[in-house]
Amino acid sequence: MNQGPDGPDRPDGPVTDLWTLAERLVPELAERTGGETALTPDERARHARRRSPGARRRFLGGRLLRRLALSARTGLPPGTWRFTEGAHGRPELVSGRHGLRFNVSHTEGLIACVVTEGYASGVDVERVPFDDETVRLLTTQFDEAQRAVLAGAPDPAAALQEMWVLSEAYLKGIGIGLVQGLGELRFTRRAGSGEVTVADGRRPETCRSWRLDLTGHGSGHLVAVAVDDGGAGRLRRHDLAGPGDLVPPDVPPGPWPAAGPPAAAWPPAASAAP
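The line above is the sequence of 4'-phosphopantetheinyl transferase superfamily protein; the predicted structure tokens follow.
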């Protein structure tokens, strides 16, 4: 497993954990953890309603990965976690679960999850490069000023991919998704790093505390992470890319029971290092 910080080292700042799971590993992860039996009844019903095998596999992988990521962060068993839906259907932990926040994204080939302690966050993952039809359709989602920036870029298609994944991560992070569109967002990458700042014409005060990280993935994907940590944090990656990565301590031993009773104490005696 590839694990370590991206960008400048800030050992005393808040840590955002980014977990990625190759879609091809979902069946093995499910076999190790109990698969659908680790889901709640509602999650199992939603899983069954997915029409294609790929959609069901990615749904299951996302649900298992978020339990894994939360447990790796805390040392608590995967059956600890209970989920609810916030505004616009965003999955969240039920209130009072140790201040943790998380977000999940998946596309063909890759599933991603971010976990923070006390900071809102968002993640988006896209398979790249986009085909010509996708580029044409997505271009129409941006405003005139954004399209001008894209047209002036050395590689307009690559710039569109980056702007799209950054926009999705940020809008998921602030909790509204795409319901209000993508207009008036501007992104600036810090020289020599994958760190990005955002200017939001609709929410100029909100955006000031958000930091974004843009990173490639060896499987042909682009990942963006947005965190409301005031720019003081750092990103720690955990890439589950091969079968050898699905062993302790990265994957708690299974099978994982569905949500059980709350933990008796916090912090646990043996918790994961921040």
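Note on the example: The CA atoms of residues 104 and 247 lie 22 Å apart. The chain has six helices and twelve strands.
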